[in-house]
Write a structure and sequence with these properties.
By secondary structure, this protein is an alpha+beta fold. Helix content is about 25%, strand content about 30%. The strands form six sheets. A five-stranded antiparallel sheet has the order 6-7-12-10-11. A four-stranded mixed sheet has the order 1-2-5-3. A four-stranded antiparallel sheet has the order 13-19-18-17, covered by helices on one side.
Length: about 350
C-alpha cells in the first residue's frame, strides 16, 4: 500500500474544497485495511474514513490520515422464499448499485436513485428519498474495528437507524470502518409512489404499469431538474435535515404560514420541508462570494468556484440563524463537518 503525505482532497469531495490531508491511503481489500490498522506509526492519528466524499464539508486541512475505502464487488449471496440478499463492497457507487439491482429484478431502492456517494456511507446516513430509507431494505453490514482490525457484523437493529442517522454517526463514530453492505429485497414488488411529486411525474411520463425501472427514471427526472450536478456546480446535496416538530407547534405555525410544506412523520410529529423554510427567508439563489444557495433548490449550498469550507459553513450559520429567528426552528446539518 502507498501512504502519501500532504495529499490534496479537492478531487475527493463533492464540494471541491481545496484541503490537504497530512497522510492519505487508498485501500482496496478488507485484508489491506486490517494490515494498515496494524501499523503503529499511524495508530494515534485522527482518521478520516472517505467514501465518495459526497456528504462532507472540509473546514480546513486534515491533520491526520485519510483512508479511502475502495472495497468493490456486488453479488447475490443468498435467497429464501421471500427475499433476495445482495451484498456489495463499501466502495461501490450507490447509483450504479441501484441500476444493477433494477437490472437484476430486485426492487426496493429505486426511490433512492441518483443519490450521490458510495455504499459504505449509505448506512451511516440512513440515506432516504421519496418515502424510502435505507433501513427499509437493510439486512446487515460488515466492518472492521479500527482499534484492533477485527471483523464485526452489524444487524439492522445494531445500527440504531433514525432519520439521516445511525450508530456510526453517534456513539460509534470513528470506531469502525464499513467494508460491505447486504440489502434484503422482497420478492413481492411493492412500490412507493406517494411521496412528494413522484406520482405527478409518473403521470407526466405516461409510464403505464409501474416497475422499479420506471420509478427510478421518474426520480432521476425530478432530481436532475431540481438539483445541480456536483461535477458542474460543486455541492453535497441537501445541506440540512428536514426538521421534525410536535403537532402542536406545527398547528401554531400553520396558522401563521398556511402554505408551509409539511409531511406527517408520526402520530405526534410533523416533518417540515427545510427547503421551504430557507426559501421563505429569502435565501434561494443568494450568493456570498463563491459560496451560495442554489437557484433551484434552497436546501443545496454550493461552491461556485474557489470557496473554502469556512465560507460555506459561515453561510450555513447565517441561514440557520434566520430560520430560527423567523420560525423558532433549529436546522440541523445533514452534511458531516470535518
Amino acid at each position: 500500500m502507498d501512504i502519501l503525505e500532504n495529499y490534496s482532497l479537492r478531487e475527493l469531495n463533492s464540494f471541491a474544497i481545496s484541503a490537504n490531508s497530512r497522510y492519505f491511503v487508498a485501500l482496496d481489500e478488507v485484508q489491506e485495511i486490517q494490515e494498515f490498522l496494524e501499523i503503529d506509526q499511524y495508530r494515534a492519528l485522527p482518521r478520516l474514513i472517505l467514501g465518495g466524499g459526497s456528504n462532507i464539508l472540509l473546514s480546513g486541512d486534515f491533520d491526520g490520515i485519510t483512508i479511502k475505502v475502495n472495497v468493490m464487488g456486488k453479488e447475490l449471496v443468498s435467497e429464501d422464499d421471500d427475499y433476495y440478499y445482495v451484498k456489495a463492497g463499501a466502495g461501490e457507487n450507490w447509483h450504479q448499485f441501484v441500476l444493477y439491482c433494477i437490472d437484476k429484478g430486485y426492487s426496493g431502492v429505486e426511490n433512492l436513485s441518483l443519490i450521490p456517494g458510495n455504499l459504505g456511507a449509505a448506512p451511516m446516513q440512513n440515506i432516504g428519498a421519496y418515502g424510502v430509507e435505507l433501513k427499509d431494505v437493510f439486512h446487515e453490514l460488515e466492518a472492521v474495528i479500527t482499534e484492533s482490525g477485527e471483523p464485526i457484523t452489524f444487524s439492522n437493529n445494531d445500527c440504531v437507524f433514525a432519520y439521516r442517522n445511525s450508530i456510526f454517526k453517534s456513539e460509534a463514530k470513528g470506531r469502525f470502518i464499513i467494508t460491505s453492505v447486504t440489502l434484503r429485497f422482497s420478492k413481492k414488488h411493492v412500490y412507493n409512489t406517494s411521496y412528494g411529486n413522484l406520482e405527478q411525474e409518473l403521470e407526466a411520463m405516461n409510464a403505464g404499469s409501474l416497475s422499479a425501472k420506471v420509478i427510478s427514471e421518474a426520480v432521476c427526472n425530478i432530481r436532475n431538474r431540481k438539483l445541480p450536478n456536483p461535477a458542474e456546480i460543486h455541492n453535497a446535496g441537501s445541506f440540512f435535515k428536514n426538521p421534525i416538530i410536535p403537532n402542536e407547534q406545527f398547528e401554531q405555525l400553520k396558522e401563521q404560514y398556511p402554505d408551509m410544506v409539511s409531511f406527517k412523520s408520526s402520530e405526534t410529529d410533523v416533518k417540515l420541508a427545510a427547503a421551504w423554510l430557507i426559501d421563505f427567508c429569502g435565501w434561494k439563489g443568494k450568493r456570498e462570494g463563491d459560496a451560495g444557495v442554489h437557484e433551484n433548490h434552497a436546501l443545496v449550498l454550493v461552491n461556485y468556484g474557489k470557496s473554502n469550507g469556512s465560507d460555506i459553513l459561515n453561510l450555513s450559520f447565517e441561514i440557520a440563524e434566520s430560520v430560527k429567528k423567523k420560525f423558532g426552528i433549529d436546522l440541523e446539518r445533514e452534511v458531516n463537518l470535518v
